[in-house]
Amino acid sequence: QLQLQESGPGLVKPSETLSLTCTVSGGSISSTSYYWGWIRQPPGKGLEWIGSRYYSGSTYYNPSLKSRVTISVDTSKNQFSLKLSSVTASDTAVYYCGRQGGTTGWFYYFDFWGQGALVTVSS
Amino acid sequence: DIVMTQSPDSLAVSLGERATINCKSSQSVLYSSNNKNYLGWYQQKPGQPPKLLIYWASTRESGVPDRFSGSGSGTDFTLTISSLQAEDVAVYYCQQYYSSPITFGQGTRLEIK
Fold this sequence. Notes:
The complex is a heterodimer of chains A (123) and B (113). In chain A, 0% of the residues lie in helices and 56% in strands. In chain A, a hairpin with a 4-residue loop joins strand 7 and strand 8 (79-84). Chain A is built from no helices and eleven strands. In chain B, the strands form three sheets. In chain B, strands 2, 6, 7, 8, 11, 12 and 13 form a seven-stranded mixed beta sheet that branches. In chain B, strands 1-3-10-9 form a four-stranded antiparallel beta sheet, with no helix packed on it. In chain B, a hairpin with a 2-residue loop joins strand 9 (68-73) and strand 10. At the A-B interface, strand 5, strand 9 and strand 10 of A face strand 7 and strand 12 of B.
């Protein structure tokens, strides 16, 4: 059974960079059939897609965050990572990693999710 | 961006009764080349990640009880729970994956009456 687990600091200072890693077990992150993505959810609010990366390296970002976001993959560790720069209090949220089916240029629904990691932006 | 609007925002239904949640997209999510609607439904319980219920608007994910069903095409979609169970109390979200950025509805909170 595929499992995803987020890890990283739970507290980040304003203007600094938020960094999270998603470790994938029970499946290969190098699979040709999937994208690996990040979604966030501010406390008590709805879901916002951050971005997704294909095994080939193609990466798609939400334009609302694109200037501050980087998603990278480490196939040797079966992990993918999120970096969000210049954070403010409005970036406080639970951050989820997830797997999406897809093909070149198309990504689909999220069928597996991590449990989520709460990141608070505060000095 | 495609805006997803759900209705109602909250819903209270008696146990055993039918629950219906609507989702409307600001533009069609039907891809004519394969006649598929790029629309999914998720269930989120407190303190848990969202769980995929339905994809391609009407295909039930493996393991999801058959009391959950999805319907609709183009811009108007419905999630129906045919006979509400206590464990169905949750927030439900629709999501379009027709075009980037992926967008979600604002959520519908389902409670027991």
